[in-house]
Amino acid sequence: MDKQHNMSDPETRFLEAFDTYGDALFRHAALRIADRDRALDIVHDTFAKVWSYIRNGHEVSSFRPFLYKVLNNLIIDEYRKQREASLDQMFEVDGVDEGNFPELSENSTEALVATIDGSRAFEVLKELPDTYREVLLLRFVDGLGPKEISELIEVSENIVSVRLHRGLKALRQLIETETKAREDRRKKNQTT
Predict the structure, then answer these.
(1) Which residue in 87, 9, 88, 81 sits closest to 45, CA to CA?
(2) 3-state secondary structure at position 97
(3) Which pTM does this prediction carry?
């Protein structure tokens, strides 16, 4: 069998996608779900659903966005089980208004990224509302662009940009608050 024919084989393409994206999908799931075993189960469920979809005669033109879409749907289902809350309630965290955000630009977002300490960011990321945590993980851990994220979570690219900007700003504030509290404790301990 020649290589050209082999690459068009759905099973070969699926196995290649598994090898290529399996680790990244697990990292994404593990960061979104505190239980590593459950995250692994969800990634396995993702690949099982995609394989079933292919076996039923459907074509997947681009595996990466399709796999992330299935994975995110399973993560949302997991949140529903854990919190027993509707998606509407989950996305109404802190009265987030996804309307216009003045002066939102790529430069201001990049400036926020530059001010955040990466190791601390992962420590406090779980404290952010899921609407922000999701887009930050997709953008900075999984390397997806705003357009890919908007297609994946089915919101406009503008909303993704707003959530990225606000999420980074909230993350920076959490880190600064934590750092100040740590410094205050250190100073207090030195005087004691």
Answers:
(1) 81
(2) coil
(3) 0.53
Q: Which CATH class is domain 3-84?
A: mainly alpha
List the pLDDT tens digit at each of the 192 positions of the chain: 434 444 568 889 999 999 999 999 998 888 888 788 999 999 999 999 999 999 998 988 889 989 998 998 888 778 767 655 443 443 444 444 444 444 444 444 544 444 455 556 677 788 889 889 889 888 887 788 888 888 888 889 999 999 999 998 998 888 888 888 888 888 888 876
Rounded to whole angstroms, the Cα distance separating 32 from 142 reads: 12
**Torsion sign (Cα): 37, 42, 48, 54:** negative
Measured in whole angstroms, the distance separating CA 186 from the mean position of its chain's CA atoms is: 34
Classify residue 137 by its DSSP letter: I
Percent composition of the chain: helix, strand, coil (DSSP 3-state, to 5):
80, 0, 20
* 82 vs 40: CA distance, rounded Å: 17
| CATH architecture, domain 90-191 | Orthogonal Bundle (1.10)
Extents of the domains making up the chain: 3-84, 90-191
Q: Give CA–CA dist 120/136, Å, rounded.
A: 14
* Cα angle: 156, vertex 21, 59; to 5 degrees: 70
Q: CA-CA-CA-CA torsion for 32, 66, 132, 117, nearest 10 degrees?
A: 70
The amino acid at residue 55 is: R
